[in-house]
Amino acid sequence: MRAAYLTRRKLLGTLATLLAALFFSIAAASLVGPVHASLGRALGPGGAGTPDYVIIVRTRLPRVLLGAAVGASLSAAGAALQALLQNPLAEPHLLGVSSGAAVAGLVALVAGADPVSPLVPAAAFAGALGTMALVYLGARTQGRATPHAILLVGVVCNAVAAAAIMLVNALASYAQARGVLFWIMGALSTQSYALVALVALYACVGLAWLVAHAQSLNLFAAGDEGALQLGIDVERARRSVFVAASLLVAAAVSVSGIIGFVGLIVPHLLRLLLGPDQRLLLPASFLGGAVFLVWADAAARTALGPAELPVGVVTALLGGPFFVLLLRRQLSRTFT
């Protein structure tokens, strides 16, 4: 297997390069925006009282860091699910977890919760957990949940959740419409450093959970029977990875709404560049997804400045054509 040829030098070199790219992206994106702000004035003597400090340190930087955490979570979850379901077209939002989170968040908004209160993300997280349990239990037959069944039940749950979102949208008042758009289109907003740190910590724990199952994910390429013969408890490993990936998606969606295609684009491109070994692909997707969403959000903030696009629109514009090209590639392989 190709997994056996991963060297420590390749692993550390690749991750160091991506980590450097992430630090550069965070620093550069914090300086990008429709309003010019000087880093020198912000960090210079007396800079804490300047508008530049407020713009860069209190407004842009926490948003950029939140985008990095959300992108990392979605991308790592996508890489794991593609290996778990043995389908390179698998994408976290296809399983309905993000739509379930959006429904719960919207219900909380329509019920009168303050959009900036922690109640809305908490409701979204609970909705994601409920959907995750529904997908897994619905796909389980005779004590097993096959990749095919998980995908089918996830697609059905996604469709039902989409209809529920439209229903809640129809019941929402005009004043609640902005919050509804936030969940439907996906958007990042400035949050407290405490919340950003919590999401980042959650993302790192989720990554560690997935990396611990990286070798099992590599063996899934041999199919369920092959993995069993190689000593893997297929059902237990599949359940553990599915839960970890779903929790990562739930945490991301609870603070950003539905941002699609990050978990499809980044893992697939990195798989083409680095190979399918999950020991490298999972952490590389984590860092690569962070870089991707940081720059996607920078484009969303500046493309139509001073107006702002939801970052979910930017990722959809990039991801839609990419998905079609990937699908055509898969079909051409199938019929040749």
User: Which outline best applies?
Assistant: globular
Rg from alpha-carbon coordinates: 20 Å
The poorly predicted ranges are none
* Structural domain count: 1
Helix/strand-derived category reads mainly alpha
Q: What is the spatial order of strands in the main beta sheet?
A: 1-2
Overall mean pLDDT score?
Answer: 84
Count the E strands. Answer: 2
Instruction: Tally the helices.
Output: 14
Strand content: under 5%
Please give the CATH class. Answer: Mainly Alpha
The gist of it:
The protein has 336 residues and is mainly alpha-helical. The protein has helices spanning 8-29, 39-43, 51-84, 97-110, 119-139, 147-171, 177-185, 193-211, 214-219, 223-229, 234-256, 262-274, 278-302, 311-334; strands at 140-141, 144-145.
Structure description:
This protein is 74% helix and 1% strand. The protein is mainly α. It has a two-stranded antiparallel sheet with strand order 1-2.
Q: Keywords, please?
A:
single chain, 336 residues, mainly alpha, ABC transporter involved in vitamin B12 uptake, BtuC, two-stranded antiparallel ribbon, 14 helices, 2 strands, globular
